[in-house]
Amino acid sequence: MGKIKSIEYFRVLPRWLFVKITDEHDNYGWGEATLEGHSQAVEGCLDAMIQRFVGYEADNIEHLWQTAHRHSFYRGGPVLMSALAGIDIALWDLLSRRLGLPLHVLLGGAVRHKVKVYSWIGGDRPRDVEAAAKERYAQGFRAVKMNATEDVDWLDSPKALETSVERCRIVKSVGLDVGLDFHGRLHKPMAKQLAKALEPHRPLFIEEPLLSEHYEGIKQLSGLTTIPIALGERLYSRWDVKRFLHDTSIDILQPDISHCGGISEIRRIASMAEAYDVALAPHCPLGPIALAACVQVAMCTPNFTIQEMGLTIHYNTEHEGGAYDIKNYIKDAGVWDVREGYVEGLKGPGLGVEVDEEEVRRVAKTANAWPPKGFVGPDGSIREW
Q1: How many CA atoms lie within 13 Å of 228's alpha carbon, on the beta-carbon side?
Q2: What mean pLDDT is reported for the chain?
Q3: How many Å apart are CA 48 and CA 75, to the nearest integer?
Q4: β-sheet bridge partners, residue 17
């Protein structure tokens, strides 16, 4: 046992927010509190949590989690839950490091020895997908995800969807499975059409076919298509997830470990999903600490199916020529090597990666926050991004 001596956070390129917790015996752990486009808000929340939780017992992870969540009065949401996630992940890393065990051992032990993964192609306005798909295949991936469309109006010409179907066909011809991320960009009139048009091409899943707040529309859409429906990155707790499981409107749940309160909460969400025969495929186009935490959860979660991996994702390559990616900030980048669609399970103590603290502190000195993105239609109106 040891009390928390310090909680630090580090904003690093391209768009990540890392957390380090040290106890009074100089044991330490790392977490990730990334909330894309809202780093400053999470940093402000972390400042308040630092004042609150320095001096707490570092091993009492659940008590700290419950205190942060239930004694806040205003609960949940992306900012609070991302800040809590960074602390929660770091505390689990600290505890398992101190015990000299991989984190998944503390969570019940391994149910698999390697983890199926997919990566991204195509960018925000998907293009050149054939060359990108071939490159991913050569890297060892056997599944990818891409944005299904560019920006689309509430009711647009059906022609706006034709290229989406063609891209899906092209990528599958390379020998890859492909998930199509609608990204909440489409509204119901267009989402219904696109799902039907894609059905003969059998994508791996369609993600966020509508924004998560349209739970009644997602339930309706689930009755119109045989394609598995995935969502969850904009659900921040088991209470947010509950409605979709009860409605039996989704097939794959995609909570983000850095948005939903960390390892403690994603484990509870996974167990809820298992009871409804829903698979877990965590959202993670984020940094290496979040990804390592996801891999640890995947190794001990029976209903886990596939892990998103942000290797050279377009958000990373936009900054300084892609100088910062998931192979930065850790000392053994080889843990992210992909072979026949899998990465090996992480076997080292804690999260299973060694953070390069010198690089983290150096980059954090000058890193700017990543700004939110958006689309504007030709008439000047706001469109979903």
Answers
A1: 17
A2: 96
A3: 15
A4: 11
